[in-house]
Input
Amino acid sequence: MTWTDITTIEQLEGLIGRPAYRAAHKVRAALLPIDREWLAASPFCVLATADDQGRCDASPKGDPPGQLVHVLNDRTIAIAERPGNRRADGYHNVLVNPHVGINFFVPGRGDTLRINGRARLLSDADFFDRLEVKGHHPILALVVEIEEVSYHCAKAFMRSQLWHPETWRPDALPSVAAISKATIPDSPETLEQLEAYYGPAYEQGIYTQTT
Output
């Protein structure tokens, strides 16, 4: 098998071309009112981080619309952290490398809002009350000082048909419990125990810390 590597910007631009004016000039350094509207409508984002060696992580974050993101000002946002598995891979990265990229989604929309900037972690702040969901305060908050804001086009969603229910096949793969057992075979839990763990109680406890 022969592989042809792309090793220069010239080679890359020779294949994909250069961006049109609109794409080349879409990046801004602060939020506009329409960006605030988008953030208020978004219930889900993916946070990209890297450690000091360049090893990357992409972590999903989700809350009800209007409660995922708190806009502190046109150059600063905060995202609440809720109970999870405690690995905190992305937050470990932020402690050694503050640069982050975040992609904010609105269900049914193909375009997305992208924010890049420098992040820090807070264990408490005067705005934490506004990050409360179902009576629960966040564990911590990721505060991002915005460096770049832009919108990304819908073509990836058009190609994938991600929002088309007729393409959804969640039962094409094993259950979460079965995948957990297959990927961590020495786990002490049985498959039946894992199925019970990921059952109805799992969703009921998403805002409370579990083991």
Summary: DSSP finds eight helices and seven strands in the chain. Strands lie at 44-50, 56-62, 69-73, 76-81, 99-105, 112-122, 140-152.
